[in-house]
Design a protein that fits this description.
Blueprint: H1 2-11, H2 29-44, E1 48-51, E2 57-61, E3 68-74, H3 87-102, E4 111-116, H4 129-135, H5 140-145, H6 154-160, H7 172-177, E5 178-186, H8 192-195, E6 199-205, E7 208-216, E8 220-221, H9 234-251, E9 254-263, E10 269-270, E11 273-281, H10 285-305, E12 309-318, E13 321-322, H11 325-337, E14 344-347, H12 352-356, E15 362-367, H13 383-401
Helix pairs in contact: 1-3, 3-13, 9-10
The chain binds glyoxylic acid (GLV) and manganese (II) ion (2 copies).
């Protein structure tokens, strides 16, 4: 089947040979390889690939016009990410279009495949940056100034990759042409396996966000500075990690500190500064706010006790998402008619579909992940389930795009 062929070509791009994880950061060489792969595959299918003003790619089947049925996902990854997160949605979209073309389906509405940029926020720290820019949820000037860990701005990275950052910003014309957006994604969690289902339908996305915590201390000698005299930012940071875990458990949400930078990074010195990122998510905004407020106040208290300064800044926020009920019911009906039972699932993971949902009727399909592990090289989906996902997506596109 075409999916396996598409997948084989994509599989090695941006993969670290040591860890087996993917490092497909936006506007890097690996990202360019993934974009070239997509353009080649879309070309082979006779689709016209157009970049938009925000670094996203669009492959059109038929002339771009209002009412388009759009599918797709992203090709960027988290550090040492799995191969399926995002990529499965793009490869499945290409395979679904190939399947429809094979059976000479002639869509009444335009169909497009989108590859959204910087979905993970792994390089510039704002997730779903491509869809946020497109919908006006992020100010373009702010976006141009976002920096990566080496201090390179988004504008500089785009320019180096041959893209024009001066054009970033809301794209009302493109939004007006999209009638519906359906994103297929690997399941991130393990709900489908116990239900014996290969595919599921998303109900909604938990509210979530990222907060940057800067702890400022004083560099000192590990072998001579008396414990009582130190201003060690590592201490309030370490206690904050535990406070986050406790706050999440108490509120029924999730809180994670997965990234930390200690400066200057000497093994025989007290750090001068520690920067950590808190990722917090919860079933509703009240519980999310409670979690973050609890962590912030604990962290402030610990910092004061250690003579350390603390500043906390929100870097991104996504309110709760409820996917379009009518579209969900329609998809459920299409799949049920084909004998596919697709359970409806909530998720704590963010997606471009969640950002676009504010402007367009949007839905998501999940493909079973037998272990539930994601954002890890261990992420997996069986080939048979990927193929079931392609089949489900093709049925949905066929229904939504209508036969001429
Ligand atoms: C996207 O994968 C997220 O962090 O939810
Ligand atoms: Mn992800
Ligand atoms: Mn994803």
């Amino acid at each position: 089947m075409i999916f396996a062929e598409l997948w084989r070509e994509l599989e090695s791009l941006g993969r670290d040979p040591g860890t087996g994880g993917y490092r497909r950061y936006s506007w890097t060489a690996a990202d360019a390889q993934c974009r070239a792969w997509f353009t080649r595959q879309a070309d082979n299918l006779g689709l016209a690939v157009e970049p938009d003003h925000n670094g996203n790619l669009w492959a059109w089947w038929g002339r771009r016009r209002p009412g388009a049925v759009v599918t797709g996902s992203h090709l960027d990854s988290v550090p040492d990410g799995g191969g399926y997160d995002g990529a499965l949605g793009v490869a499945s979209a290409l395979a679904a279009v190939a399947e429809l073309k094979d059976k000479n389906f002639d869509p009444e509405r335009a169909v497009a495949i989108a590859v959204m940029t910087e979905e993970e926020g792994a390089r510039f720290r704002v997730p779903c940056l491509g869809s946020r820019l497109m919908t006006g949820a992020v100010d373009p000037e702010t976006a141009r100034g976002l920096t990566d860990d080496d201090g390179v701005t988004l504008a500089e990275a785009m320019t180096a990759a041959g893209a024009d950052a001066s054009l970033l910003g809301p794209d009302e014309d493109l939004l007006a042409d999209i009638g519906v957006f359906v994103e297929l994604h690997v399941e991130q969690g393990r709900a489908l396996a116990p239900l014996g289902a290969a595919v599921g339908i998303a109900k909604g996305i938990w509210p979530h966000g990222r907060w940057r915590l800067d702890f400022g201390g004083r560099a000192d000698h590990a072998g001579t500075a008396r414990l009582a005299d130190r201003k060690d930012p590592m201490l309030p940071y370490a206690r904050t990690v535990l406070a986050a875990r406790r706050a999440a458990a108490d509120s029924g949400g999730l809180a994670t500190i997965g990234k930390v930078i200690a400066e200057p990074g000497g093994a025989n010195g007290v750090s001068s500064a520690v920067t950590a990122w808190l990722d917090a998510r919860a079933p509703d905004e009240d519980r999310l706010e409670k979690t973050v407020t609890t962590v912030r106040s604990a962290s402030m208290r610990y910092s004061a006790e250690c003579g350390v300064t603390l500043s906390v800044r929100q870097e991104s926020y996504t309110p709760p998402v409820h996917f379009d009920q009518g579209l969900r019911d329609r998809i459920d009906g299409v799949l049920a008619a084909a004998g596919i039972a697709a359970p409806v699932l909530p998720t704590g993971a963010g997606h471009d579909a969640g950002i676009l949902a504010a402007r367009i009727p949007t839905a998501m399909l999940f493909v079973r992940n037998p272990t539930g592990v994601s954002h890890s090289p261990a992420e997996h989906a069986d080939l048979a389930d990927c193929e079931a996902g392609v089949r489900a997506l093709a049925l949905i596109l066929e229904d939504l795009a209508g036969r001429r």
